Amino acid sequence: MTTRARSFDTAAASYAAHRPGYPPALLDAVEELTGRPLAGARVADIGAGTGIATALLHRRGADVVAVEPGDGMAAQLRLAHPRIPVLRGDGNRLPLVTGAFDLLTYAQAWHWTDPARSVPEARRVLRPGGALAIWWNDSDTTVPWIAEQEARLAEFFEAKADPAKEAGPSRQTGQGSGFRTLPRGLGGFATRSVRWSRRVPLDAHLANLASHSAFLMLGEAGTRAYLAAERELLAPHFPDGTVEESYVVSLHVARV
Q1: What is the pTM of this model?
Q2: In angstroms, rounded to a whole number, what is the distance separating the alpha carbons of residues 104 and 91?
């Protein structure tokens, strides 16, 4: 798990440039389910990566700190968002003061933690009445071309016996059914699904795929070959070279 999680450090700049963000409706849902506005809230974004979610929380007025274990990802976050504090650590051992936070967010990051350690840590740093928000942003497989792409990814990585335990466009690439299991010990979770889309050049869509851990672990040569074949399959669907990526964000919030 650590090797896979740290693979992102080698591709931090591409990750920041090509990964999708999140729609405003997601943050609206966070506010609804936590029962308080983000403006003025003390928030820690855990497993912050290059700061995609962190920056959105900051723009909403949250007093946010990023927690990130990876050297490359943390450096990219500091470069892009110099005003946001970045602390080195992960969900299993939070470098945060006890009882100091209104909200902890795990954007595409909870599955990298060990719940036996991360749940007590979350409880420790949250204030009474605070909340934990976990979300995953997945490709919308009700869209036919996306379903076809996901099937190709699954077949490819299953043939390589690759666990590919990461959220995102390649979520079907062989991970077990327990991958998205929500933690116990935090009470019940309220859930929302938020659908959204973005339009990007075909090159950017392929670069987004390449930034996922399954491809980072596969290596440059194998990734290049796979994406070349994928380009040939996708080009007829998008003759103007622009891809409309459709997503579903699954948000889960527990108040403690």
Answers
A1: 0.88
A2: 10
